[in-house]
């Protein structure tokens, strides 16, 4: 799934990834699979904190950018910083989409969609698989 010519900060073989990830995590993160809608751990979560890549623990999104898009997956209007994710043109399923990957390890996270109807500051919806993420709650003040 990942670009074999690109050098990521975190580089592992499929054997190493399979030893660290569950079969479902491996399918989504390393084989660009998609979890079913409305079943993910973070779809409806309102907890304040930072969402990290489940494969390499890189910080990707902040809860302040999460919104309810009613699409069945956690949605964000921006990554924590632009250098945290990378974008790959995706023509699978007969449609043009933009895949979102972790820039640190190349793991598949989901897709980003553009549209004024989202009502977000960026007009973007990062539709991310819950299984691609781990939420680190903010320390209570």
TrEMBL record:
<dbReference type="InterPro" id="IPR028427">
    <property type="entry name" value="Met_Sox_Rdtase_MsrB"/>
</dbReference>
<dbReference type="GO" id="GO:0005737">
    <property type="term" value="C:cytoplasm"/>
</dbReference>
<feature type="domain" description="MsrB">
    <location>
        <begin position="14"/>
        <end position="138"/>
    </location>
</feature>
<keyword id="KW-0560">Oxidoreductase</keyword>
<dbReference type="InterPro" id="IPR011057">
    <property type="entry name" value="Mss4-like_sf"/>
</dbReference>
<dbReference type="Pfam" id="PF01641">
    <property type="entry name" value="SelR"/>
</dbReference>
<protein>
    <recommendedName>
        <fullName>peptide-methionine (R)-S-oxide reductase</fullName>
        <ecNumber>1.8.4.12</ecNumber>
    </recommendedName>
</protein>
<dbReference type="GO" id="GO:0006979">
    <property type="term" value="P:response to oxidative stress"/>
</dbReference>
<dbReference type="InterPro" id="IPR011723">
    <property type="entry name" value="Znf/thioredoxin_put"/>
</dbReference>
<dbReference type="GO" id="GO:0030091">
    <property type="term" value="P:protein repair"/>
</dbReference>
<keyword id="KW-0862">Zinc</keyword>
<keyword id="KW-0479">Metal-binding</keyword>
<dbReference type="GO" id="GO:0046872">
    <property type="term" value="F:metal ion binding"/>
</dbReference>
<dbReference type="InterPro" id="IPR002579">
    <property type="entry name" value="Met_Sox_Rdtase_MsrB_dom"/>
</dbReference>
<dbReference type="GO" id="GO:0033743">
    <property type="term" value="F:peptide-methionine (R)-S-oxide reductase activity"/>
</dbReference>
